[in-house]
Amino acid sequence: MDKLHILLADDHKIFREGIKALLSKEKEVESITEASNGNEVLDLVSSNQYDVIILDIDMGTPNGIEVTDKLTQAYPNTNILILSMLGLPEFIMQALELGAKGYLLKNAGKDELLTAIKCVAKGDSYFSREVSVSLMKQIQNPQSQRSKKKAVPLSKREVEILKLISQEYSNQEIAAKLFISNRTVDTHRRNLLEKLGIKNNVGLVKYAINNGLLD
User: Fold this and answer.
1) 95-127 pLDDT, tens per residue?
2) Chain-centre distance of CA 56, in angstroms?
3) 59-68 — which CB contacts under 8 Å span 24+ positions?
4) Are 26 and 120 within one domain?
5) Are residues 95 and 190 in the same domain?
6) pTM of the full predicted structure?
7) I want to staple 57 with a disulfide (CB 3.0 to 4.6 A). Which of 7, 84, 149, 188 is the partner?
8) Cα atoms found within 13 Å of the Cα of residue 48, Cβ hemisphere only
9) In 26-93, at which residue ranges do the beta strands (DSSP E only) sit?
């Protein structure tokens, strides 16, 4: 992996400086740009490229969720990691449904933060343990299912890949398991997203659960 260019957005300067001090020591990190609010993020992204954008949720207007929506609408390949004190299921689901690739709580350690950044930079998903637990409870609770997506005919291969994605296998692991290339896995995943009208892997997991595709 090339060295990473990171945009870090949080309205607390002391927090930004602390994270920057930690990450600047890592050999994987090339640069860290700071933003104190959502508007600064939007301005910076319009003229610069970042491998990962780390967003707090509670940082004024527009907040992190609103910024996520704006960024993924304008730049679909944006890699966003939410780093927040807010671990409520509704915030997690909303951020991920809008296109964030990862969600981490601020009680995470340096090693987990770096792991999350590297995963998201590759386009993979990363959720802290607490977020994963909250996410699965939200998905499995019928009262929380705002709407079920209408079932769409899928090929046998698409169903296989959908199941493996739902079991948190990476593209590389799926490729090895099914004896196909990473590129083929990614093509199938993109086709699934387009066919089902879903933005990310979280949506694919929800679809699989809602439509009884998991054992």
Assistant:
1) 888 999 999 999 999 999 999 999 999 989 898
2) 13
3) 59/9, 59/10, 59/11, 60/11, 62/38, 63/38, 64/9, 64/38, 64/95, 65/91, 65/94, 65/95, 65/98, 66/38, 67/9, 67/38, 67/41, 67/42, 68/95, 68/98, 68/99, 68/100
4) yes
5) no
6) 0.67
7) 84
8) 18
9) 29-35, 52-55, 80-84
Nearest to 22 by CA among 35, 38, 6, 44: 6
Cα separations (Å) of 157 from 125, 179, 186, 193, 214?
22, 12, 13, 14, 14
In a domain, 215, yes or no: no
Q: How far is CA 126 from the centre of its chain?
A: 6
3-state secondary structure (DSSP) of residue 105: strand
40 lies in which domain range?
4-139
Do residues 103 and 151 share a domain? no
CATH number at residue 180: 1.10.10.10
Same domain as 113, residue 28: yes
